[in-house]
Amino acid sequence: MKFDVVIGLEVHVQIRTNTKMFCGCSNRYGAEPNTLVCPVCMGYPGVLPVPNKEGIRNTLLAGLMCECKIALYSKFDRKSYFYPDMPKNYQISQYDLPFCEDGKLVISGKGLSQELIATKTIGITRIHLEEDVAKSTHFKQYSGIDFNRAGVPLMEVVSEPDMTTPDEAYAYLTALKQIMQYADISDCDMEKGQMRCDVNISVKPSGSPTLNAKTEVKNLNSFKAIHKSLHYEIERQSDVLESKGHLVQQTRGWNDDIGETYIMRTKEDAADYRYFPEPDLMPIEISSDYLEELKKEVPETPGQRCARFIQEFSIPEYDASVLTSDKACADYFEQCIRFGSNPKKTSNWIMVELLRELSQSNKTFDKCPISPKDFAELILLITDNTINGKIAKTVFNDMFSSRKSASVIIDEKGLKQVTDTKEILEFVKRAIENNPIPVQQLKEGKASALNFLVGQVMKFSKGKANPQLASEMIKKESS
Ligand SMILES: [Zn+2]
Predict the structure, then answer these.
(1) Is residue 56 part of a domain?
(2) Which of 115, 135, 242, 347 has the greatest count of CB atoms below 10 A from its CB?
(3) What are the residues whose beta carbon lies below 5 Å from ligand 1 (ion)?
(4) Which residues form the domain of 12?
(5) Do residues 101 and 43 share a domain?
(6) For position 307, what pLDDT does the model report?
(7) Distance in angstroms (rounded) separating the CA atoms of residues 130 and 29
(8) How far is the CA of 24 from the centre of ligand 1 (A)?
(9) What is the pLDDT of residue 81?
(10) Per mean pLDDT, which range of 23-37, 313-327, 412-426 is the poorest?
(11) 73-74 and 284-285: which strand pairing?
């Protein structure tokens, strides 16, 4: 039997603000547990919430980046539930009047399996704003609760069930993360819980118009886990249908160690949360003037920047898409160009050498030991033949570990390229004298012989000869 897969994602993104959503506590990750708290976020009786303008602004900005309709009249609601991570026994969220609705996100590129995905538009149902809940940690004998996270502004981005493969879900998450980073809304670091995702997935016989009951998978803490859990669920649900079983709506968890989902509970309906308008907060009215101002602040999207890079710097589409997939990388590249380095050469060196070194040393661009100015200088020294490509790699590695500039390293180690023809000629003569057979082969037109002889010259010159000059002179001297 063949099956169709229907996938929708609910993604929570913590918004980067100075303070929490409804109180003045600092919104900061990594502090001692329960040190960033106050009566409001601890849910003491009689306290009143005050909305954080910055949290609302960033939610609207995310909506504009995803081409959503922005509600000029919106409100907060209480979502009631009883759990230790929520001291008020309700969470302030949004129910029927979210800030943003009906948007879209274009996905393309590669999924986790490295297979190219056809460009596709995924609908965004809504983006609403709520407060995060406390973080519970379960130890052997007891559980601990850290209220530092309680009240942190959190937006929920709900997609339409438009995805049909785990790779598409992966590409969607990548695109969403890029947008949040480009608009400076969040770093979306999943390890820090800044981005969290629940997936909804259902499987039906190919072509069938009726949807089967869906499964919601929770506790997914990496893009990889999301991808794997979707694969697992497709298998599991297809097996149920194959064996004439019946799929029921349920919430499942993900066990990353064994790579399986497990049943948590059958799904609550929205009514279980007893939503009602938050009586302590006025509805939020957004003036069209404010919205117009905000529209001017919407930054370039990754796609727009990619297109601009191709146009402005005449680099291939592949280069542009790699560079712009990470905002910090795109910024770095543009800064290098501003210091005068050649765009295509810069792009090659970033994509091949710098990205590799950063990933091997587990660093991000903000911790990059080579400044864009120094990186541009290296490229300029290659372009003007002060050093050749091979020496440049040594210099680059040295720059990365010592943080010294290229010119300092070249001076200190005497790595300047030899372009003095007299000096090179001596190496060329030696190479010819020592290697009669390759010389003979070269005369017979064998290209590999030339490479060998150039290699000899490079060896004699300790890698410093200009290989182009060497090649020309070998041809001349051996004929
Ligand atoms: Zn507080």
Answers:
(1) yes
(2) 347
(3) 23, 25, 38, 40-41
(4) 3-290
(5) yes
(6) 92
(7) 18
(8) 6
(9) 85
(10) 412-426
(11) antiparallel
